[in-house]
Design brief:
single chain, alpha+beta, HIT family, subunit A, 3 helices, 31% helix, globular, binds guanosine-5'-monophosphate, HIT-like_sf, Histidine triad (HIT) family protein, HIT-like, catalytic activity, Histidine_triad_HIT
């Protein structure tokens, strides 16, 4: 069965997409830790990041770097934190989380539940700053 992220890639379900190329896509986490929390995903569906082939693995990180630069310009933060968890969705993704404090990347804390309009606004800003 296709993962929830493949459904976003295929536009079968909505996602607030901020960047995309032939092999990778980035969209907002639907329940972010903080505003501007983005997931970067290889289009090829693999469960575990360390099972990616080297080319996809390195490309994913290079794409994430470009997305992080766009988030930096769009959200008030000191820097962008990076995490890989993957315990919920079995399709590789890198979390990019704007940081103002250590607690901003604490996955045990409660997550946010922004409105569609709030998500649209931050997605538009990141998309504009992606190049
Ligand atoms: P992980 O697999 O790294 O533990 O967490 C998966 C992440 O995907 C969570 O932060 C969760 O909020 C996010 N997520 C789960 N379902 C969806 C969805 O349908 N759309 C989006 N944009 N994010 C999702």
């Amino acid at each position: 069965m296709a993962s929830i992220f493949t459904k976003i890639i295929n536009r079968e379900i909505p996602g607030h997409i901020v960047a995309e190329d032939d092999n990778y896509i980035a969209f907002l986490d639907i329940n972010p830790l903080v505003e501007g929390h983005v997931l970067v995903v290889p289009k090829e569906e693999t469960d575990y990041i360390f099972n990616l082939d080297d080319k996809v693995f390195s490309g994913l990180h290079l794409f994430s770097k470009k997305v992080a630069k766009a988030i930096e310009k769009s959200v008030d933060c000191i820097r962008i934190g990076v995490a890989v968890i993957g315990l919920e969705v079995p399709h590789v993704h890198i979390h990019l989380v704007p940081l103002n404090s250590m607690n901003d990347i604490n996955f045990s804390k409660g997550k946010l539940n922004p409105s569609k309009e709030e998500l649209e606004e931050v997605a538009a800003a990141i998309k504009k700053n992606f190049n």
